[in-house]
Amino acid sequence: MQFIDLKSRHNLISDKINARIQKVMDHGQFILGPEVRELEQKLAEFTGSKHCVTVSSGTDSLLIALMALGIGPGDEVITVPYTWISTAEVIALLGAKPVFVDIRPDTWNMDESLLQAAITIKTKAIMPVSIYGQCPDMDAINEIAKKYNLPVIEDAAQSFGATYKGKKSCNLSTIGSTSFFPSKPLGCYGDGGALFTNDDELAEKFLWIRVHGQERKHHHPILGLNGRMDTLQAAILLEILEVFPDEVQKRENLGQTYSESLAHFDSLETPRIGDHNTSVYAQYTILSEQREEIQKSLKEKDIPSVSYYTVPLHLQPVFNNLGHLSGHFPVAEKVANECLSLPMSPYLSAHDQSQVIDAIQGSLTA
């Protein structure tokens, strides 16, 4: 059994993907070819955003977003400690300071009730993370941000395709940022990412920054980087996007089956989807103090599982200079200590899912 089944989708649409690839090989525009703009238009339409700018990776999309906002040394950006390191890494790379607020015990997303207390005169942006496939309470976060005239960047690397109050992830704040890493809900065959905004000026800056800060040929008014998406990846994503809505529905169905089958165990906590939210279950993650026993039972039956972010960012040695200690963010630490992600992809068979569920049930009742 595969933890994330990427082969089944490819087998389903391989002829169409191969045809797309051949078209790129024929026209030879391997960087910023016509497929890139076509993809940007379709992604903007999918999310309802005015602008989409594709980039080289999800990490670069966050970095470009911060650069476009002018974040630099002495600034602070508020985010969460329970996420992949890219979220805070890009803040530090620009010389700014990551400021952490704890996550909620239900959705494991940013606890908006703690946000206002973390804002200082140095705060220049807020970066909530849509963890494991569902969005934070973006209205509450945006309301606080508006009070202090702060931009909000949704790190939606794991939630593309999810909704919050009927609106698509990536179109919920000043800037939406996502990743097309192969294991993400909408994944390509390499690295890739995208930025979304309804702000014309920001969209223009994204375009400049991804080509070394170039406004027009040989004219560089701002610093940038090499952040372009390969045309081949755009071509591949165009075909994957065609089957993506069906995959989102399959993910929701699989998540519901997992939750209904495991909900009655007191020693295990299933994901709680927030009010007005849908989830694309980038990972289906449970919490349990018996994580090791569950994982051992799964391994004995050749079922893969992964514990993500077991060391929260505030306890990573690279951020020792921030002065955080164990206990500073108790909810993030609890989730990190108890989390276990189960096999999840749109093409997980009912038989394989039943095997996973049976193995967990057996480990908890043995």
Description of the molecule:
The chain has 366 residues and is α/β, with parallel strands linked by helices. The protein folds into two domains: 7-100 and 108-238, Aspartate Aminotransferase, domain 2, CATH 3.40.640; 244-365, Aspartate Aminotransferase, domain 1 (Alpha-Beta Complex), CATH 3.90.1150.10. 40% of the residues lie in helices and 11% in strands. It has eleven helices and eleven strands. It has helices spanning 7-27, 34-47, 58-68, 86-93, 115-118, 138-147, 200-209, 231-262, 291-300, 330-338, 350-365, and strands at residues 51-55, 76-79, 97-100, 123-126, 153-155, 163-164, 167-168, 175-179, 193-197, 284-287, 339-342. The strands form four sheets. A four-stranded mixed beta sheet has the order 1-9-8-5. A three-stranded parallel beta sheet has the order 3-2-4, with helices on one face. The protein has a two-stranded antiparallel sheet with strand order 6-7. Strand 2 (76-79), helix 4 and strand 3 form a beta-alpha-beta unit. Helix 8 packs across helix 11 and helix 9 (291-300) crosses helix 11 (350-365). The mean pLDDT is 96.
Biggest sheet strand order reads 1-9-8-5
Number of self-contained structural domains: 2
Distance between the termini: 23 Å
Based on secondary structure, the structural category is alpha/beta
Low-confidence stretches: none
CATH topology of the largest domain: Aspartate Aminotransferase, domain 2
- CATH top level of the largest domain is Alpha Beta
